[in-house]
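Why this split exists: single-chain examples teach little about how molecules sit against one another. For that reason, every record in the complexes split bundles all components of an assembly together and asks for one structure covering all of them. Below is a record exactly as it appears in the raw files.
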Amino acid sequence: MGKDSSTSAYAIEIQQLAKSFGSHRALKGIDLNITRGECLAVFGPNGAGKTTLIKLLATLSRPSKGKIFLTGLDITKEAIKIRHQIGVVSHQTFLYDNLTAYENLKFYGKMYDVPNLEQRILEVIDQVELRNRLHDRVGIFSRGMQQRLSIARAILHDPQIMLLDEPETGLDQTATVMLSDLLKTFTSGSRTVLMTTHNLKLGLELSDRLVILHKGKIAHEDSTKNMELANLQDSYNRYTGATS
Amino acid sequence: MNKVFAILWKDILSELRAKEIAASVLFFAILVIVVFSFAFDPEDDTIGLVAPGVLWVAFTFAGVLGLNRMFAMEKEKGCLEGLMLCPVDRDIIYWGKMAGSFIFMIIVEVVVTPIFLVLFDLPLFMPELALIAVLATVGFVSVGTLFSALATNTRAKDVLLPILFFPIVIPVIICAVKASEVAFDGKPFGDMLSWLGIMGAFDVIFLVVSSLVFEFVIEE
């Protein structure tokens, strides 16, 4: 049964979520709730199940077991409604190299039925500070600029929930700082955010709460309030068996 | 419908800039026609038997090249995931990509057919050939788009697509060859109706089936 999206207390509810690929169990029964407006960082080593979790939440993949509700809607039954409410930023940009920034945004805007599209394109392109490159082909953009445009694409339809899958991957230090500043702007306020990252500092700066995922299970969950980076590093090492 | 056109517009704009699909497909099809025109003497009485096969071999193999690229370009930068994140039914993606493949193939056929007719010393005005081409191309791309999406998630997609695709699309190619044979022989239009009918039925069945199963093919 679907829940009432207007009255559900949680933006994201995950119940006993499991996902298998053949005999490999990527996620092994996860329970997680994220309240509206909260920002949750998911840390974990490669193969922990972070990207699988994001793909399931983004309706790109179906759970093997368990339930996911986004704003009270069951993702297996109301995927199209849910896709209107989520914006995804990944290490892949989802942008077409042969199209200009404007053409990419116009294409995605049409696919999402964005009202007043021309005006909205200018708003988001200003927010990511790429107005002067609006009519340049994306293929000639630097990796950092492409990722900024990818954020513009993700927020074009003004989603309530942002899913960020290692958005800093492949960026140099300067671009990571710029991305971090941008994400702070977009993750503050009423938007609910779930981000996966290997960058403990970035995750700590942006999130209200953190989860450490290890071998498809939640190994640790904590608030980031008053947490120091060194403490987070200790927790990460302890729960994942990593040595820094 | 406007979302189908948005996908089509994006594919056409992308291709106009990159010229990856049309250029390679066009070059390959012309090359096949030219090679065969040297192999067979246009003055020979048997040319009417050979020519339809040559024409459709060229279109079929060139078409597979194009189909391979249609979804390969979506895989770059994860654009296929970007498309799948859009709040639309999966069959919208199918219709958009199918329409793009159809237009690219028709353009190739419009350019290559006159060259073929000249090289094989056949009459240049053959309106029935346009009908055969449209029906055969719809059948070809309706199945091809589905298998292109299927193959794009595999490592050996260049090899896998023809292996999966040809056995299914063979009825359309046979009908196109037989109908073209009737046209080249100058026989009455009524003689090709049965072949056109089979192609029409194939088109309807595979357009419906492919759009319905596309969702399961494209998802993990």
